[in-house]
Amino acid sequence: MAEHKSALDAGRDVVARLNPPLEGALAEKYDALVPGFAESLVEWAYGRHYARPNLDLKTRQLCTISALTVLGGQTAPQLKVNIKHTLAAGATREEIIEAIWQMAVYGGLPAAINGLNAAQELFDELDATTA
Amino acid sequence: MAEHKSALDAGRDVVARLNPPLEGALAEKYDALVPGFAESLVEWAYGRHYARPNLDLKTRQLCTISALTVLGGQTAPQLKVNIKHTLAAGATREEIIEAIWQMAVYGGLPAAINGLNAAQELFDELDATTA
Amino acid sequence: MAEHKSALDAGRDVVARLNPPLEGALAEKYDALVPGFAESLVEWAYGRHYARPNLDLKTRQLCTISALTVLGGQTAPQLKVNIKHTLAAGATREEIIEAIWQMAVYGGLPAAINGLNAAQELFDELDATTA
Amino acid sequence: MAEHKSALDAGRDVVARLNPPLEGALAEKYDALVPGFAESLVEWAYGRHYARPNLDLKTRQLCTISALTVLGGQTAPQLKVNIKHTLAAGATREEIIEAIWQMAVYGGLPAAINGLNAAQELFDELDATTA
Amino acid sequence: MAEHKSALDAGRDVVARLNPPLEGALAEKYDALVPGFAESLVEWAYGRHYARPNLDLKTRQLCTISALTVLGGQTAPQLKVNIKHTLAAGATREEIIEAIWQMAVYGGLPAAINGLNAAQELFDELDATTA
Amino acid sequence: MAEHKSALDAGRDVVARLNPPLEGALAEKYDALVPGFAESLVEWAYGRHYARPNLDLKTRQLCTISALTVLGGQTAPQLKVNIKHTLAAGATREEIIEAIWQMAVYGGLPAAINGLNAAQELFDELDATTA
């Protein structure tokens, strides 16, 4: 039983490092529509995956960036959130761009270009915020 | 002009690290069907992408593993080749498995399970060879 | 011969239940670009599929909702139209949300979240209309 | 804490109805490769999704059949497992075939035909077993 | 009424040019599982699409080859059938290979390579038959 | 060495026929983010693919239109650019529409409808410009 509590708790520990307000924001946006949504997502994605040993968080995030890129432009909102998380995990913008552009080989040029566009938008938003 | 020669040459340098017989094997299998195939692939994938600075080769390979996983079971042959390359780039089997399994979050369980199956097959082949 | 007339006619009967103005709206929007578009769509989608026996219309519509969800955010406009049709076929909003959210297992979280967003938008539009 | 225990337990209750040996079979096949795999899958897929209220299990399974069909032939193994589960949930073979064939409208003919092929294979296997 | 009869008949005329035994073979393989399958497919795919004016049959077939290639290895059986149809429509093997390989740009290298593999298999089968 | 210079140069020759300002526009938009982007894209897509012999440029472009259509609405920006290129390669609007609509058979109705929407938007933009 303890271990299942720790799946959710371990997920929350990862979220605390990457994006502390995430669970609250998800709950506010989706829990009325899908009861249990935010907790379920944190438990599964962060507790059952990102919290696992054997691969560091920064590399996990770069893998996610690449995967969202080949999944296509439909995942642009998730790609932007995850680029933020990847920066929080210690990656540079240059590393992120490489993880996107390389996907032209596997997912084709349109997917890679849509990924670059999402990154550019996010970088512009970050620069506007800090300017 | 030199720089374009170096796109192919830089690609060949990466291939020399990851899988020296690759270009020859691709040429033998595909160049009669598609004249220029092997050279074109090495130039584009390895010279124009893997040879780029700003992201280390091992992380690039783990990103590729994740992307091929979410692209689905149709890429199993390419996934197995790239798992070999990822081992050659210095990743452990555990790191590779993590880069695959995490994809259940983004590409769904069937894609992740098909990816694990491809990895298991490749590991079994490697173990059979070295046994 | 009679049975082919009935493919189109059977399709029109289904459309009459789900969304009477559909064929006219499609004809107005697409028939100049693609002569025969609306009739062809009604015949194929509704006459050759939804009008078939052995599965009730409400379940057919919920299956469509799930499929459009895993096909990704690119199908948001079609998803919204089909959520309307699914309500017209007798499903509740709660059933529709479940048919979407369950797809996180098969198509990944981004596809499921994009599907929830489309449903929320449609529900908001319906509520605004009836308010 | 209790509620997270129940996500796994609720998942196990669903699995008990659909396919009792599933968790053990998954553990045997995958837990050495991915520690915690079987438990994690049962908790997420069955506890966090199929066990939810508001949509009956048979309809949930038919939705899954449709989704796996449009995801393409790469999901044939998962489609066959889920067709078994759908029969266990009370659907007829005819209902399952309809949930597959209708997908020609949304995922295209190749995906629908590959889905029909998977169903035919599974039906043949079941008939051979019971013959 | 006549026009709907002619959708099916127009489809049969195209099939007569590309692959005369197709409808019978489809009926034998699928009509027991999906009543009306073969007729429905001929009417929709060949009557409502390939029989349309404004684009010649050979170009239509080459477009189909490219589309099946980017849809991924899951469509290999359909790709092989359509390569045969494309040869029947007057294309050369070289043209077909170009329509596949170019897809590396849009669908990525794995999809293009899987497409080349399907073409090579089909060419080998044809050569074995005529040898 | 000369032949690799000519991959880029051959690509530039094709671009000169289809869309002369393309390389400059891509460089301005992406080269700061991805050093070498524009040159790399011209070399790979146009030099290593469109410049190849054995398939005429107009047919290549129509194949691309079909492929981008089945890849889904996420590729709408690329589809619109390529529709322009296809017109420049000598195709009529009617031919382009046929290459899109036929894809309903292979990629499903939502993908085909999204493709028609992209074409209609581009045609409207062109008509507004010339009006």
Automatic annotation (TrEMBL), chains A, B, C, D, E, F:
Pfam families named in the record: CMD
UniProt xrefs under InterPro entries: 4CMD/NDH-1_regulator (IPR052512), AhpD-like (IPR029032), CMD-like (IPR003779)
GO terms assigned for molecular function: peroxiredoxin activity
Transmembrane segments: none
UniProt source species: Thalassospira xianhensis MCCC 1A02616
Occurrences of domain Carboxymuconolactone decarboxylase-like (ranges): 35-121
Descriptive protein name: Carboxymuconolactone decarboxylase-like domain-containing protein
Top-rank taxon: Bacteria
